[in-house]
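Sample log: AAA family ATPase.
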Amino acid sequence: MQREQEFLDRVYDRVDTLRGLAERRVKDALIPVGTGMQARLERDVLVAERAGVLAALNAVDGSLCFGRIDLQDGSAHHIGRIGIREDDADHTPVLIDWRAPVARPFYLATGHTPLGLRRRRHITTEGRTVTELHDEILDLGDRERSGFEDPSGDAVLLASLNSARTGRMSDIVRTIQAEQDRVIRADHHGVLVVEGGPGTGKTAVALHRAAFLLYEQRELLAKRAVLVVGPNAAFLRYIGEVLPALGETGVLLATQAELFPGVHARGTDTPRAAAVKGDAGMAEVLAMALRDRQALPEPGAPVIIRHDDGDLILDWEIAYEARQAARDTLLPHNIARPYFVFHAVDALTAQLAERLGADPYGGPNFLGPDDIAQLGKAVAANEEVHAALAELWPPLSPQRFLADYLAEPVYLPDEDAEAVRRARGAGEWTPADVPLLDEAAELLGTDDSAERAAAEAERQERIAYAQGVLAVSQGSESYEFEDEESEVLAAHDIIDAERMAERQEEADHRSAAERAAADRTWAFGHIIVDEAQELSPMAWRLLMRRSPTRSLTLVGDPAQTSEEAGVGSWDAILEPYVGDRFSQVRLGVNYRTPAEVMDLAARVVRAQDPAFEPPASVRSTGVAPWTRESGADLAGAVERAVAELTPAEGRLAVIAPDALHEEIAARLDGVTAGAEPDLTRAVVLLGPRGAKGLEFDHVLVVEPGRFGTSDLYVALTRATQRLGIVHREELPASLR
Ligand SMILES: Nc1ncnc2c1ncn2[C@@H]1O[C@H](COP(=O)(O)OP(=O)(O)OP(=O)(O)O)[C@@H](O)[C@H]1O
């Protein structure tokens, strides 16, 4: 213990020095250097990197070092959350980053395959103090003993699994199991599917994989960022501290609702509406609806446009020809629109020229090319022409187009159309709208010509300003002294106006993740999707656009699928994008739910699928789950059960059908219905969907007869210790 403490003191001394250094280096990096795009980009990356180092040093302070491996060759390494090196000529490693290849035997070695290890030591600390050691002897021939031997090898794991929950997920870096380690360190190329039942550590593994990839592919991912997609905001908050605790901040966590920058999708859909909106056929439906927005005047009923040189007649033929020319470009709607306008203006000009220059005696037209060009300019400048053309081929934003479509949904069976119909201006965007907005944005194309023109105008303004500055400095021409060496330089000698203008531009110190959050077309370096079974085919289209390299990790459990829009099999999800070129692994051990609770949960699924095999629980508590009939006063029975089950330390979740929340919340102190739950409170009230991915020490399930099979399976598997069930209505047969 003493020696480990001395070691730790040395490491923390070094950390404190490094932190001081990092603080100074962040400040230095902020000083503007060089000019030009490249220099600025490099500086911004440097600032982000150095700020990242500082954040990492600050974040990992609490439990920096957690392990040690002693090798058969007599050497030893300490393993920590981040790597620390000595300040010597060789930069000797003091603490090995858990993600480094050298650290790998810490996770994989067994007595059977010791991978060159003699001993594995788990070091437990509180703050900067060593409090416990647990040693596993891996070389049975080795007689040396420390007195801290842990013959079972899982004391640290079990202590962590049994510890009281806090409402925030913690990292598992000290106790990653071998099957999990293989997933975390799998190659980042291509698509990896990680399947596993409740509590098998899928979420934990996905997050540690993000940390691993950020370490291994630091250069690529610092620029392109990692996206982690989770099922809802409460879940993202629940997992939000894991990566920072591992020293990683370059990750964007988002729900589907947040994947269209500028839109906050806070509305809700009926399950039916969400399923219709998520169906793959919606891509074609929207494309067809958009073609309908490229309209023509009725044949025989042309649009008459007033014009100084005589009325212009915008008829079916002119509009048809112009539309065809624009469609032939195969460009998205907004980008093809100028072609439509150009062809229509051209045809209207020709019409006018023919009328004005016509020779009454049938000779050639009087007007020369210059006259016609003049006429064309006047037609193009006529506001009414543009208004008429905008009626036929309107410039559209994704929001406007989708709102219009939902107000009058076409190309859908009547029932589906009714399910998604929403009056213009009514209600908010919903998560299921987000992939449709993204699809619309693709079909429409971004017409950013106005923004580009504005940016260029701004740049010209800066250059003009800089020229002004230089003109003033010109007044003090460089004086040529006889002695050439002593020439005095003026500002304009060393800097031209353009470079000076660039210098004035605001530096963009946002990290790649922050930039990515604001950019719909961002291509992420890697995307991790948790609860991937819930996403609809339309949502997959959106995510695949954000991952042109198809570097993805998908994590999920088909048995827990609750969304009607969710896709049934990984083959069905992935076939359109990568064919059958994806790898799949299964995690088979449940670290969360005790065996007693898992047995009950498995019965629920088996009632539907007799061949169902749940993951094996690593623990049992010896406490069986119980069911209790409430009599008439359901809320009263819940209140009493909550009083019994609320742990002295840790968290209790009441998982009840949404319709009962008001009634239940009224009886529970500090518990509210409807609002987004604060998971750090001792008692939390949730619906089965909101409980997805979360866990609590104790769980009370209310009125399980009203839950669908997969929702009930999710609800029952949230407990790390105890489970109770309260019901007034009849129990499902599987729970009786
Ligand atoms: N190797 C490990 N060491 C310590 N704790 C672990 C380990 N693996 C998993 N856990 C813990 O088990 C619990 C369940 O993990 P996690 O939430 O990642 O499972 P999951 O497979 O995503 O579950 P679900 O599908 O039910 O949401 C978490 O508390 C997690 O910290």
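Observation: The CA atoms of residues 22 and 54 lie 6 Å apart.
Observation: Residues 157, 160-161, 172, 175-177, 180, 196, 198-204, 557, 560, 591-592, 693, 695, 717 surround adenosine-5'-triphosphate (CB under 6 Å).
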